[in-house]
Amino acid sequence: MSSASAPVLVERVARVRKAMAEAGIDVLLLSVGPDLPYLTGYHAMPLERLTMLVLPREGDATLVVPRLEAPRVVEVPEVFELRPWNETENPVSLVAQLAGRPSVAAIGDHTWSRFLVDLLGELPGAAWRRATEVMGPLRMRKDAAEIQALRTAAAAADRVARQLQGGAVPLAGRTEAEVSADISARLLAEGHDKVNFAIVAVGPNAASPHHHAGAAVINPGDVVLCDFGGTLDGYCSDITRCVSLGEPSAEIAEAYEVLFQAQAAGVRAGIVGTPCEEVDAAARDIIEYAGFGEYFIHRTGHGIGMEEHEDPYIVAGNRLPLAPGHAYSVEPGIYVPGRFGLRLEDIVVATEGGPEPLNVVDHGLVIVDA
Ligand code: ZN
Ligand code: ZN
Ligand code: ZN
């Protein structure tokens, strides 16, 4: 499931320990969610039984897992010791013992509150912080293996987009839900391990950015917005393309041209050192200048990696400068209620050599005969 090798995991743990020292965190406690596989390669099931990595700033890390899950753990002795717990043991007490007597403990965002509440009682002297403080900046900067995984996922999504643009996905006469199911099957056929979403929105339905594909039937002359992505080898894809069943109206063609220019400007703005909010502004300015500003109702993009949406967010107010290895979407949209909705989305990686778009299929409003 995870492409990280033991040396990569060792290096990540060393980096997180350095960040813990700087932040004054004595122990890191990670349960379900992506932080755990990022450091251990192990994806925990979201069970009522506790799974938790106990990572002290110094000394050995321990992965506490329910005994029945232990066979699924690929042991990485350089990174953690495995400590399966039996049904009659109290795993929270076990974690507290392994944590020692920390002054400051950091806990993963996705940890169930029932375990945190019990831990508060078991570690009465500890101050609590969010693990994201140290994990967020680390996970934001993708290493070479992660960028390769994102490239592979993006290429698989591109192949599905190419099928859509080439007319291989039947559209006319089908419902949005049927096309969504078709796109989902194609994401799997192209190598994804799972589908995360497949938005299909026809005509005015596309004016709702996260429209749920439903019973609306696609007809000749319609414009269809498709935004889909999945997970491949632990990393996510996410792409949006619109297609037109026949020549689009002048109104839509004009709006699409503005969107196309805005998205390209957003991609080009992804120079290392540029604050995230300036990437947002690069795309937004063009849409505003053309008079569609009030119809671009969301941020320009989101970071992507093990999660579909993660840091860094490409949004006004985010002064974080882009750094090599930041991976994020550039997806401006124009949504005119009751009339139409258009969005164009690529995943981009910031590199020393400039922005590297991972999605390269046709960026136009392709006219399809499907
Ligand atoms: Zn979205
Ligand atoms: Zn998307
Ligand atoms: Zn997206």
Mean pLDDT: 96
Main sheet overview: 6 strands, mixed
Widest sheet: strand order?
A: 4-3-2-1-5-6
Number of extended strands: 18
Q: Helical region count? A: 9
Separation of the first and last Cα atoms: 36 Å
Order of helices and strands: HEHEEEHEHEHHHEEEEHHEEEEEEEE
Quickly give the structural class.
Answer: alpha+beta
Provide the list of bound ligands, each named once: zinc ion
The level of helicity is 25-40%
Structure description:
The mean pLDDT is 96. The protein is elongated. With 370 residues, the chain is an alpha+beta fold. The longest helix is centred in the middle third of the chain and has 22 residues, at 144-165. It has a six-stranded mixed beta sheet. Strands 7, 8, 9, 10 and 18 form a five-stranded mixed beta sheet that branches. It has a three-stranded antiparallel beta sheet with strand order 13-16-17. Helices cover 33% and strands 23% of the residues. It has helices at residues 6-23, 35-40, 91-99, 113-122, 132-140, 144-165, 176-189, 250-268, 276-289; strands spanning 27-30, 52-56, 62-66, 81-85, 104-107, 127-130, 194-202, 223-232, 235-236, 239-244, 301-303, 310-314, 327-330, 333-336, 340-343, 346-351, 354-357, 366-367. It has nine helices and 18 strands.
Primary descriptors:
single chain; 370 residues; alpha+beta; five-stranded mixed sheet; 9 helices; 18 strands; binds zinc ion
